[in-house]
Amino acid sequence: MSDLGLLNRLAGLMVVYIAMLVPFCTIIMRGFHERVPVALEEAAQVDGASRLQAMVRVILPVMLPGVAATFIFAFVQVWNELFLAITFIDSEDAKTVPVAMNSFITQYDIDWGSMAAATVVSVVPTLVLFAAIRRYIVEGLTAGAVKG
Fold it and tell me: Which among 106, 92, 96, 113 is positioned nearest to 17, based on CA atoms?
């Protein structure tokens, strides 16, 4: 990271997070993709859609609950990650929320009031995201729960 000039930069942290989450998201999305019948894509192509159009107009809407569930898992993982952020970010300008909250813990004291306030504020983006895509999350998490 130092040789690439990505230390103390959010871009460097993004590269690490992407490298860390791509395998997880690929495995999760593969499970959702396997549940989509091939006949849907074939029917769209028979109706004149190209392979890309079939993917965008037919397959992607069917997989939207899986995409939403995978996105929320990845978002929560990155939003709450502390260890890598402490390792790669040192400057005040690029600190993530967990790193900033960690600064309330000193050698001999913990600023509990500031820590509690920061915790409440840091939960807001996650709650907004969950509220915005809750329908897709429920569909995505329950997909495959009933066999048959």
Answer: 96
